[in-house]
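Quick one:
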Amino acid sequence: MRIAMIGTGYVGLVSGACFSEFGVDVVCVDKDQSKIEKIQKGIMPIFEPGLEDLVAKNVSAGRLSFTTDLPSAVKSADAVFIAVGTPSRRGDGHADLSYVYDAAEEIAAAMEGHTVIVTKSTVPVGTGREVEEIIARVRPDSDCDVVSNPEFLREGSAIEDFMRPDRVVIGTKSDRAQNVMRLLYRPLHLIETPILFTSRQTAEMIKYAANTFLATKITFINEISDLCEVLDADVQEVAKGIGLDGRIGGKFLHAGPGYGGSCFPKDTLALVRTAEQAGSPLRIVETVVDVNNKRKLQMAERVIKACGGSVEGKKICILGVTFKPNTDDMRDSPSIDIIAGLQKSGALIQAYDPEGMEEAKHMMNDVNWCDGAYDAIEGADAVVIITEWNEFRGLDMGRVKSLMKSPVLVDLRNIYNPDDMISTGIYYTCIGRAQ
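Output:
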């Protein structure tokens, strides 16, 4: 089989590389010539563990290629995947579908014979129908099926998620399209991965419902952590106690500074707007969005409180700026609001992140970017852990204390044990635990 993947962002590049690993011939398409040239040289536009090697392996095997020539890629494809961005639209929070619609028009003009057009991008319910209408307008004679196939990839473990997913969701009622999609995902069927066929609208809703539920779960444990602090309970133990209930599960029950990244912030907001437009508001999700936005701002206040009520003129070390470890993604990272809040209160920021600093430099001003954790810690009045990179989990606390101007550690990811920190001589504060 041969497919074209339109878009070489996070979803498109990872999905294209993984499909080629399945033995499928994949052509990834992007309008950005410089981006394609870099990928062809083995320079990945994103940091994702294992991706560089996977791309190189399949390029060498002749199964994976990259181009800016969409028509040539589409003409010979059995299936064409739309994997372009759907960012929040400025002003109203709806998903910006302009890239999806543009891709649909170009695909319609280029395709030959029966083609399965698959929406991989995260799109609101009903987008598949609109894509179908665009294709019918551009090519009234077209022979195609429009399918929804949402992705459920976690940044930092995307390849494993693709190769061994919890499920595959495919939205189509067409027998021809189902047969094509079964062939593409046959390697997963062989390892007994559940493959769920639904209507297009249902598949589109599943994606939003899944991300929104996970965002709600994160926000729930964050609010519970605040209550734990007031009532002298331990949120870590609470999370374990409720997570052992099979109806709840332990994943996404880690208290922290709030969710960020490329999916949860925009998808929760987009679903809220869709629900409002449909006249069926989602009050729980509205609250989740509001609570999460406020939480990021509140984290700066926690740091200020730990520093005695003022950070004016103080050097604050930030360890980790990406929204999670094992990625260079800065989109809607809590660090953006936290650093801005500290700077507004007069703090001087020195920071380090293993992968995210180059991207962060485009989003933050007046930050002293350092070469390593200890370099960032030197001379600081306080250290703030925002992202739980593994290299921050085993810091030499003796060295940390000796490098700091004043020994204050604010752990927003609960990666250290408060009891262990007592003997270090460092004032330690964390999230939702007795201190």
